[in-house]
User: Fold Metal-dependent carboxypeptidase from Ileibacterium valens.
Amino acid sequence: MSKLNFADFYQEYLDLLGAYQLALSTMYVDQNTIAPKKGAFNANKAMSILSSQAFAIENNPETIAKIREYASTLEDGSLEKQEITIRLEEIADSENIPADVYRRFVQTRNDSETIWHRAKENNDYSEFRNILEDLMNQQIDLLKYSPRFHQDNAYDVLLDTYEKGTDQKFYDEFFSVIKKELIPLIHQVQNAKQIDTTPIEISIDEKRQAEFADKLMEFMQADPQRVYLSTTEHPFTDFLGKDDVRITTHYYPDTFLSAILSTVHEYGHALFGLQIDEDFYGTTLANNIGSGAHESQSRFLENHIGRSEAFWKALYPSIVESFPEFKDLTPEEITRLINVSVPGLVRTEADELTYPLHILIRYEIEKMMADKTLDYDHLPEIWADKYEEYLGVRPNTDAKGVLQDMHWSAGNIGYFPTYALGSAYAAQLYEAMAKEINVEEELAKGNFTAITDWLKNNVQHYGASKSMKEIVEEVSGKPFDPTIYTNYLKDKYSKLYDLK
Ligand SMILES: [Zn+2]
Assistant:
């Protein structure tokens, strides 16, 4: 018997919404992988028709009233009640927004994405400036229709939306640890003897990389009956159903390691979808996982497994077979080369050590956006000053500066911090796992599922029924502690760069 037993009307509601969602996700994946470009206009039109239908079904006032009534009959603490509580919280955030206010917001958001693309291409922030301010202010003003909003907590509400149980106070403390512990370490690494990366600067064509990606998926024991890898412009993962997850990657001829690590990263996201308690599929317990929680799983696999020496040792025979160019490098040398840390301007190209500082910069700017104190005229300078302060580098173009990420153009404030938080959660989870499993030994045996089973049994099967903060505490036996993350980085980079 299923763990979740809903009233018929509610199960039908979930199934209907699930059918729309499957259609829309399938179209989204298709558009972003293999669909011919010229078909986009027609597909976009069909998608907007289907999504407004789904929205109307989901937010039908009569249905909502029925769900509220039904919720009151459910036992507190039951999974059914938990599922519906998550849904009703989401509904409460949006149901009082006047239709014209929401329509204007959606219109501005669509325009903003188009304008951002153009501004980035033209390397000109001034084209984007006005719509960015307008969109951010509209996004913040929408919060006043939510029962969670009380005057000064706009950013708190936004942060909690992306990752349950977090607010500005929580992140302020988190980032103060990051600053205190990592900035001196980054300086030490910069002053140490630098690692020569020329041995991996070899061009490898897309076809050979794709062949290797299949071996990589096999090495990670990914089930080809349930997960499918294809290529795209900006890698993402999409969840189509219980046994159907699509992951994507991008093959760059000159940086072939980037596709390997991004495939490992996306497979981490995929696993979360594949290893949730089976009965949660199609419900908010599967669909409403926070982005910090998700990122904790992708970064776990990417940083703690994919960047480890044990991983490269185990993968070494296939690497040399596919890329004989590397036969003169040992697995130790490859590991060193993929972990090189050099402060740069672009978040998505950042190494593991400097990455959280890219996020800190965005966090500090978002706080000003949320309380409407940001000087949008001078945003590029504010951005550049922070890069100079924290990373010692200064962008001289908008494209490599404030225009590099798409998040703000889509009205997402509060999303960025989850990337850094996810990495820190991952470090604490890894510490707990390493007490139970000899990772090196399991990888050497080719037993990748020892790792993924641990993640399933300790973390992923909960879906959204527990917050990642709770899971981390439960699994490690202590409250979330960001110094576990910073100590892990200190340890790793001290060894890598021979620091005192
Ligand atoms: Zn990710």
About this structure: Residues 8-150 form one domain. The chain has two domains: 8-150, 151-500. The CA atoms of residues 268 and 298 lie 4 Å apart.
